[in-house]
DNA sequence: GCGACAG
DNA sequence: ATCTTGTCGC
């Protein structure tokens, strides 16, 4: 995949936050998707043994959820883990992985937040804006916002609020299972994003895109150790 | 000062 | 995220 904009990664904490404020203005919150034939899932694992990040991309056929392509990339850590600046640590290896995919997806599901971020610019927004592609953030825990527990049935959800602003949905993907935190990344509406996460999670708590990407990086982690 | 804090 | 064993439940 080709970048529309050049982007510096050698920033300090202050510069990174300022860049987030600037890029957040480019986030498109409405549906602007092509028909989705392929969906991508991304995940990153960390090896503290050699201080390396392993990024994995899984491409799934949207209707069957069959895995049609996988890519794995290993890279040295170049940015510390700071809540709120997550993308500056994980995006370099992720984008390196996307350079190697053989099938272009029309939608990307990220492991982490999108708009549900202190500066409204989580990893999913960052990736979406840089590639100008539809993205969804689907996190296992929340970063910011408050919510009431959604009903126990699959498909139930409640808004994730920051003051009076809806920044995402807390969505139950399986009966009686801990909900996930869904927020838009770029070029998609929150409603459509939740529909996709439900469609991608027919059997387990997390969407198949994330589960497949997670398998890829876990295997890579075993080879490194 | 205290609690919260994506992976 | 990763470090880690067993254990409860479908």
Automatic annotation (TrEMBL):
Catalytic activity: Endonucleolytic cleavage at apurinic or apyrimidinic sites to products with a 5'-phosphate
Cofactors demanded by this protein: Mg(2+)
Entry keyword set: Cytoplasm, DNA damage, DNA repair, Endonuclease, Hydrolase, Magnesium, Metal-binding, Nuclease
UniProt xrefs under InterPro entries: Endonuclease-V
EC number assigned by the record: 3.1.21.7
Main enzyme class: hydrolase
Source taxon at top rank: Bacteria
GO molecular function annotations of the record: endonuclease activity
Residues holding Mg(2+): 43, 111
Matching HAMAP family: Endonuclease_5
UniProt function note: DNA repair enzyme involved in the repair of deaminated bases. Selectively cleaves double-stranded DNA at the second phosphodiester bond 3' to a deoxyinosine leaving behind the intact lesion on the nicked DNA.
Similarity section: Belongs to the endonuclease V family.
Name recorded for this polypeptide: Endonuclease V
Organism: Paenibacillus ihbetae
């Amino acid at each position: 995949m080709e970048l529309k904009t050049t982007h510096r990664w050698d920033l300090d904490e202050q510069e990174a936050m300022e860049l987030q404020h600037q890029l957040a203005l480019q986030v498109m919150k409405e549906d602007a998707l092509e028909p989705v034939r392929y969906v991508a899932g991304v995940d990153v694992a960390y090896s503290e043994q050699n201080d390396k990040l392993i990024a994995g991309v899984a491409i799934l056929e949207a209707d069957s959820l069959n895995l049609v392509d996988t890519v794995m990339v290993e890279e040295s850590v170049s940015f510390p883990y700071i809540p709120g600046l997550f993308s500056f640590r994980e995006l370099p290896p992720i984008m390196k992985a996307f350079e190697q995919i053989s099938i272009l997806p029309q939608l990307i599901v990220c492991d982490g937040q999108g708009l549900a971020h202190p500066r409204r610019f989580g990893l999913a927004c960052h990736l979406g804006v840089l590639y100008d592609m539809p993205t969804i953030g689907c996190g296992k825990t929340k970063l910011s916002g408050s919510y009431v527990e959604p009903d126990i049935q699959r498909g139930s959800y409640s808004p994730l609020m920051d003051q009076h602003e809806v920044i995402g949905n807390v969505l139950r993907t399986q009966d009686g299972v801990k909900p996930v935190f869904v927020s838009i990344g770029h070029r998609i509406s929150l409603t459509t994003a939740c529909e996709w996460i439900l469609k991608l999670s027919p059997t387990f708590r997390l969407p198949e895109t994330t589960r497949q990407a997670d398998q890829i990086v876990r295997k890579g982690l075993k080879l490194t150790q």
